[in-house]
Amino acid sequence: MTDASEAAGVLLKLYELRTDAALRQARAWFAFEFHPATARDVLATWLGPGHASAPYRMVTTYWDMAASLVLHGAIPAEMFNEANTEHIMLYAKLRPFLPEVRAATNYPDYLSNLERVIGLMPNAEERITNAERYLVRQRALAEAGKQRASSAPSSGAESGSLRQG
């Protein structure tokens, strides 16, 4: 386990990475425009052709990688979970589909780092339930047309129009 100042440095580096324009845009898409209803929706986005696959993979691998740093002792779990909430939203959004997604892809440990880190929280189910309520509201806003509509994130040609997330 690293000392608190080293862990804080790693945590701040993770935050810095989140401010990258491409990752910020991918995170906004994942949060506000990607609302899967089935495992098939998740699989079609993750593995399918088209522009949605890249931001999906960018967001999910970012948070699973960040969680792996926790599991390997670079950041204490308590510090990580106190400083972040977005990973809980991601997990709450995908949790209903993970068993089927894992089985369909023969990838039994898909997002398992993230799942394990969230499970380390003493109030994990309460936090996930709160995230699920938030996601229901976000889906309703999207269905009512109150989220900014766009196609998947651009390749960067429109970098001046990036949405903050």
Roughly how many Å apart are the termini?
Answer: 31 Å
Biggest pleated-sheet summary: none
Helix share bin: 55-70%
Structural class based on helices, strands and sheet pairing:
mainly alpha
% residues in beta strands? under 5%
* Average of pLDDT: 87
| Rough outline | globular
For this structure, the quaternary state is single chain
Radius of gyration, whole Å: 16 Å
Summed up, the helix count is 9
Record field, number of beta strands:
0
**H/E order of the elements?**
HHHHHHHHH
Count of all domains = 1
Outline the low-pLDDT stretches. 151-165
Structure notes:
This protein has 9 helices and no strands. The chain has one domain. The C terminus is likely disordered. Helix content is 65%, strand content 0%. By secondary structure, the chain is mostly helical. It is globular, with a radius of gyration of 16 Å.
Give short descriptive properties of this protein.
9 helices; single chain; 165 residues; mainly alpha
Please give the structural blueprint.
Elements lengths: L3 H15 L2 H12 L6 H9 L5 H19 L5 H7 L2 H9 L3 H8 L6 H8 L4 H20 L22
Helix pairs in contact: 2-4, 3-4, 3-7, 4-8, 6-9
Short description:
The chain is mainly alpha-helical and about 160 residues long.
